[in-house]
Amino acid sequence: MEYQISHENELVLNTVRAFMEEELLPHEEEVDRLGEVPEDLGRQIEARAKEVGLFAANLPEDVGGGGLNYSAMALVEREYGKTSHALHSWIARPTEILLACDDAQREEYLAPCVSGEKRELFALTEPEAGSDVMGMKSTARKDGDDWILNGSKHFISGPCMPDFAIVFAATGVDETPRGPRKRVTAFLVDVGLPGFDIQEGNKCVSYRGYKTYQLAFDDVRIGPDKMLGVEGRGLELAGKWLGMGRIWVGATCCGKAERLLEMATDWAASRKQFGKPIGQFQATGFRLADMTMGLRAADLMVTDAVQRADAGALRDEDAAMVKVFCSEMLNRVADDTVQIFGGMGLMEELPVQRLWRDSRLERIWDGTSEIQRHIITRSILRPLGA
Ligand SMILES: Cc1cc2nc3c(=O)[nH]c(=O)nc-3n(C[C@H](O)[C@H](O)[C@H](O)COP(=O)(O)OP(=O)(O)OC[C@H]3O[C@@H](n4cnc5c(N)ncnc54)[C@H](O)[C@@H]3O)c2cc1C
Fold this sequence. Notes:
Bound molecules: flavin-adenine dinucleotide
Radius of gyration: 22 Å
Domain Acyl-CoA oxidase/dehydrogenase middle: 122-220
CATH architecture of the largest domain: Up-down Bundle
CATH topology of the largest domain: Butyryl-CoA Dehydrogenase, subunit A, domain 3
CATH class of the largest domain: Mainly Alpha
Largest sheet: 4 strands, mixed
Order of helices and strands: HHHHHHEEEEEEEEHEEHHHH
Family: Belongs to the acyl-CoA dehydrogenase family.
Shape: globular
Number of domains: 3
Organism: Hwanghaeella grinnelliae
Distance between the termini: 38 Å
Low-confidence stretches: none
Number of strands: 10
Cofactor: FAD
Helix content: 40-55%
Pfam families: Acyl-CoA_dh_1, Acyl-CoA_dh_M, Acyl-CoA_dh_N
């Protein structure tokens, strides 16, 4: 894909590649083995990312971010995808939802996230409401000018204990032609508030060391100044961000697939059985051909989507197609790489098994493959009234 990138983006790519080599790749085995990123390593990654301009590179320059457009960010995310989320998540890309902050919130939340003084979590998923977002049980009810928040969230992920969470809760119900519909509102909820409990949650075998948290709210009182955006419009806010998040998943999947493909190719060319390299057996060679075609198609889908996003023309179904296509391509590539490596593919001594484990998550988070297919199907049938 690099034959057509601009000089400016080439510089970005060189920066992120050097950063990967020096700051991230040397630590991935240790982090996987430990199941955590030691705090001093995380802080070192943060500090170095600030020095080279990768920290908050996704946000506009007028809020202190790096001002990279979506096409440039896709190149960056593609490179990050070659290593563990546990490591590259320390290079903050604060959620763009925070751009919905009002002036006072920008000072209290957005600016410190850009400078690295604060970290946020995006808290939508609940134990009983994963794919079915509207099944959420978290509520916020009015009490004078304040809101009283109750409920719980789980699988809420980040590199380290956050300073605040962007929490989605139902603030009422609307009657619509399709039946009652929850009004969902986003709130900025500070860690440490009375009634707000946050604990490390389940440990994931993909991206070991990337943490998930469970959040519980028991009559948490939050002021009117903590509402993010407009009451009842939280899902529109979330949706805008989730769309780009799905494209970043696609880009990272392409990066990881490229790394796996390189490993598989080297192995196929050097491992000999029956007196010749296994790549010379058509079963292996054709596998490499299919992996290469899948990656090419996935890269083109990401390129198309970020061009749409840069032009302000990205639709939900575009992002859904990228998410499902790229994550499923990566899973085929990862599985085929294990197959080409044979038994060695599953041994801890080689990184193949780790990348294979890491790949599996991509079909699940940010909306499962099934949910992406629902979004695509809806975009096809709804115009026909079906
Ligand atoms: C490591 C990790 C980090 C995460 N980080 C965050 C985070 O920071 N913030 C956040 O809010 N969430 C986060 N999530 C949650 C993630 O988005 C959800 O796990 C995901 O949306 C799926 O929800 P679920 O796990 O509850 O699965 P479920 O919704 O229970 O789904 C189980 C299965 O049923 C299928 N299914 C469900 N409904 C349908 C349907 N209508 N049609 C067909 N199939 C269906 C699903 O596709 C899936 O295969 C994270 C998850 C993980 C694992």
